[in-house]
Automatic annotation (TrEMBL):
Top-level taxonomic group: Bacteria
Span of the signal peptide: none
Keyword Transcription: yes
Protein name from the UniProt record: Transcriptional regulator, TetR family
Organism: Actinopolyspora righensis
Gene Ontology MF annotations: DNA-binding transcription factor activity; transcription cis-regulatory region binding
Gene3D superfamilies per the UniProt record, alphabetical: Tetracycline Repressor, domain 2
Length: 205
């Protein structure tokens, strides 16, 4: 029982740390803030994480594992490479919206507290772009790096909240706008002989 209670306390500390780091960044967060959010004493928090840096590293490790687990799930599927790239962007968008540890990892990476969140998925996207080119799914006038940059750009507009700001101007649901962006990109990079587009809305967020 004491061990179970300790694990619950550690889990609450991790979740509270993810929330606070995602909201306020590294310098804007204190261990006292995290303990208050977790509903535990500062002593209980520091028993599991002696320093703010230790807690930040644990939060970021969890965010990276979540990202890798989710992306690996579609990377190992039998879908064509181009479809997998599209699905990964939807997964990343969903994680940015729903998972505090991923948001914390993304923010602390930009603050240079930890390695960049993009390192956990961008190499996979580029490898898939290369594969899509080898499969003849990219027009000769395009190249794998262009496809990688398009996919990264779609994720980036969500990271920076630009998507929500732009969609609020036209009352367009952000999910619809992402589908429209992918449809535009696909029509630009697919070979002319390809008539059927991959499914830009296969995964929802």
């Amino acid at each position: 029982m004491p061990q179970t209670r300790a694990l619950r306390t550690r889990d609450r500390a991790l979740k509270a740390g993810a929330f606070e780091f995602a909201q306020h960044g590294y310098s804007g967060t204190t261990l006292t803030d995290i303990a208050r959010t977790a509903g535990i004493t500062l002593g209980a928090l520091t028993f599991h994480f002696a320093t703010k840096r230790a807690l930040a590293e644990a939060v970021c490790l969890h965010g990276r594992r979540v990202t890798e687990d989710e992306t690996n799930r579609v990377i190992t599927s039998s879908s064509p490479a181009l479809q997998v790239i599209i699905d990964i962007t939807y997964i990343l968008i969903r994680l940015l919206r729903e998972d505090d540890s991923v948001r914390a990892l993304n923010r602390l990476g930009r603050e240079r507290i930890t390695s960049n969140w993009h390192d956990s998925w961008l190499p996979h996207v580029h490898a898939l772009s290369e594969r899509a080119g080898a499969e003849g799914k990219i027009s000769p006038t395009s190249d794998p790096l262009t496809l990688t940059m398009f996919a990264t750009g779609i994720v980036s507009v969500v990271e920076t909240s630009i998507l929500d700001v732009a969609c609020s101007q036209t009352n367009t649901p952000s999910s619809v706008q992402v589908e429209q962006m992918w449809e535009t990109i696909l029509r630009a990079i697919l070979p002319k002989e390809v008539k059927e587009l991959p499914q830009p809305g296969l995964s929802r967020f």
